[in-house]
Amino acid sequence: xxxxxxxxxxxxxxxxxxxxxxxxxxxxxxxxxxxxxxxxxxxxxxxxxxxxxxxxxxxxxxxxxxxxxxxxxxxxxxxxxxxxxxxxxxxxxxxxxxxxxxxxxxxxxxxxxxxxxxxxxxxxxxxxxxxxxxxxxxxxxxxxxxxxxxxxxxxxxxxxxxxxxxxxxxxxxxxxxxxxxxxxxxxxxxxxxxxxxxxxxxxxxxxxxxxxxxxxxxxxxxxxxxxxxxxxxxxxxxxxxxxxxxxxxxxxxxxxxxxxxxxxxxxxxxxxxxxxxxxxxxxxxxxxxxxxxxxxxxxxxxx
Length: 303
Hints:
Layout lengths: L2 H4 E3 L15 E5 L4 E7 L4 E6 L4 E5 L5 E5 L5 E6 L5 E5 L4 E5 L5 E5 L1 E2 L2 E2 L6 E3 L5 E5 L20 E7 L4 E9 L2 E6 L5 E6 L10 E8 L3 E10 L8 E3 L5 E5 L2 E5 L5 E6 L4 E7 L5 E6 L2 E6 L9
Antiparallel strand pairs: 1-24, 2-27, 3-4, 4-5, 5-6, 7-8, 8-9, 9-10, 11-12, 13-14, 14-15, 15-16, 17-18, 18-19, 19-20, 21-22, 22-23, 23-24, 25-26, 26-27
GO molecular function, one term: gluconolactonase activity
Cofactor: Zn(2+)
Keywords: Hydrolase, Metal-binding, Zinc
């Protein structure tokens, strides 16, 4: 793939974020719908989900790929808490879980106000230990990525979970299908994707909220729209640029919402994660495959 075909430069700031000699590498193919990449620096590996195949996969830098967990209960999004434990969103169990260091799985949330969650989708952990996750209905719409069922929640919400107490609170209730989410590097804002246009006319945008006391969301406003497909998973680099999935690749937006450019990927992208020794390698889950490409910036994610 030529550099011209690989990159779609929309703003003069984008070339400083990409390495001209870097190439898109396909690291693995054979998934049905790859999702939820998360980098483990201490284990020097990437773990991601293959939802319809009900498994989680592991890639290591020598190129080896193995099954990390099967069955996975249709795990979708993954992240790590500040202690390094794996936090996962299960479509099958309609719950958020934590994998302990000894391999035990702890259920963190599976209901709200006495009713089952829809199908937790993506998750992030704040520095105070609170867990924030989205709960659209994708995992219960059919038996392909979970178990078909009727929603019990009246709305598709975004939740904040206080891990020590188990208290759960709906912090946003006006999304059609909330999807990916990420904190700004300074944790003063939370960005949330709405992928409602996957089964509605609108929307296909990412909104941003200010945080009050680290717990409440306020001042909801539009940040950006995706012009190809829908926004799914996204992450920030250390300069506050937002890198998001789209149908034609990975889109990079400046902190002011300007589209800086795109990395073109031959399959529909679902999610991304920065990783590698210096967190300057962008890992991309896209339909059947796992890709990666080196950048000249570094991911703002922990641990």
